[in-house]
Amino acid sequence: MGLVVIGAQWGDEGKGKITDFLAEGADVVVRYQGGNNAGHTVIANEKKYKLHLIPSGILYDEKLCIIGDGVVIDPKALLDEIEYLRNEGVVVTPKKLLISDRAHVIMPYHKLIDAYSEKQRGSKDIGTTGKGIGPCYTDKHERTGIRICDLLHREIFAEKLKTNLEAKNRVIKEIYNEEELNFDEVFNSYIEYAEKIREFVTDTPYVLYEKIKENKKVLFEGAQGTLLDIDYGTYPYVTSSHPISGGVCIGAGVGPTMIDRVVGVCKAYTTRVGKGPFPTELFDEVGEFIREKGFEYGTTTGRARRCGWLDLVILKYAVRISGLTSIAVTKIDTLAGIEKIKVCTGYELDGKVIEYFPASLEDLAKCKPIYKEFDGWDDSIQHAKTFEDLPKNAKEYLKFIEDFTGVRISIVSVGPERENTIVVGKY
Q1: Is 214:113 a contact under the CB 8 Å cutoff?
Q2: Pick the CATH number of 266-423 from 3.40.50.1010, 1.10.3720.10, 3.90.170.10, 3.40.30.10
Q3: Which end of the chain is more exposed for a tag (fewer CB within 10 A), N or C?
């Protein structure tokens, strides 16, 4: 059956580490949405790996990794990542990595339009990574996208590229006043990419179904987080896909009856990148302390993350939206050394206390967090090997999270290494 790992905040919760940890007990690891606009940092065997498209399970030799149809793929970025991993001594072959033939392809015009449209928005920009993710998903839903299966058929790809370039070049020239793309240059480079990825491409939903019928353990890995979901996030400051658990069925091609557990990953505090309201954001020395100690800078962009206290309104929202069966709390060690730690338990909006997460960003911007305060703990937390080893105050903090959300904590991370992971209960 299937175990899903999702981000329960704005992404960057440490899903890479948790997925890598859980992958040890899985047979198949599947990435089901997003693109190379997101990244996972995994530390294993005293080495740091930065992954963007390939599932974290690739670091295990005996696991099968799948990039599902819900992912949008920049073939050059994928090939660069394969080369990077091989240079780091990681085996990447079609026996370990498969790519869905239904996944959509990020084209050069997607990246250009992404960058030009952001520039044109000026102060109202969304804060995209410029990787072409949004424009690629736009074409997918407009039904003009190019899929991996198209890329592997030279004549079909040429026909679709010609049609698309005629339309995109008009946009690039007439709206953005930029230089048009050359058909031959794009075609030749992408045909070269196609030949290099061909051996990895297959009907992945079929493979997944057969593996599940064989009672293999499947781990589904998402990118970004709940509040970046296109429907349930802080729209429009969101991604263009569904990071929530519901995105698994579409993005991997499996039925809901094939999923039995959902682990939500959250930091012991809250971070986000880019614009938009952030009720618990800290603008003082505590926020700076968290940023520097937790090294809160993006894996893909290097952008500094905004930091704030743990928001349990958000976490409870993720519990409801994705049906979390357990929670993995990461970076609790980052808070060590702070004398008093706060947790948001509700918002005050227009003089009334609310416990729900507003859809309107205008309402969210007016929300004042209601806090509960806890005594802090020291750096001895990094040496904890069991839940009982944790400092008393940290255990009280975690128990409050469980009681407030109504969901048990299954994993606590006290450091970046695989061994800095405490299993509290069944996940």
Answers
A1: no
A2: 3.90.170.10
A3: N
Q: State the binding site for GTP.
A: 11-17, 39-41, 305, 331-333, 413-415
CATH topology of domain 104-197: Adenylosuccinate Synthetase, subunit A; domain 2 (1.10.300)
**Positions marked catalytic:** 12, 40, 140
Cα angle 16, 332, 85; round to 5: 20
pLDDT for 55 equals 93
- Widest distance between CA atoms in the chain: 66
Question: What is this structure's pTM?
Answer: 0.93
Which parts are annotated binding residues for IMP?
A: 12-15, 37-40, 129, 143, 224, 239, 303
DSSP letter, residue 424: -
Annotated binding site: 11-17, 37-41, 129, 143, 224, 239, 299-305, 331-333, 413-415
Residue 62 burial (C-beta neighbours within 10 Å; 0-12, 13-18, 19+): exposed
Tell me the binding residues for Mg(2+).
12, 39
Mean pLDDT for the chain overall: 94
Give the integer Cα–Cα distance in Å for 117 and 111: 10
Task: Name 420's Cβ contacts closer than 8 Å, sequence gap at least 6.
Answer: 333, 382, 413, 414
In tens, the pLDDT along 361-400 reads: 999 999 999 999 999 999 999 999 999 999 999 999 999 9
CA pair distance 111, 172, nearest whole angstrom: 11
d(CA 296, CA 306): 8
The CATH classification of domain 2-101+201-262, taken from the options 3.50.50.60, 2.40.160.20, 3.40.440.10, 3.40.50.1000: 3.40.440.10
Instruction: Give the tens place of pLDDT for each residue, 197-256.
Output: 999 999 999 999 999 999 999 999 989 999 999 999 999 999 999 999 999 999 999 999
DSSP one-letter code for 337: T
289 Cβ contact partners less than 8 Å away, ≥ 6 residues apart: 337, 338
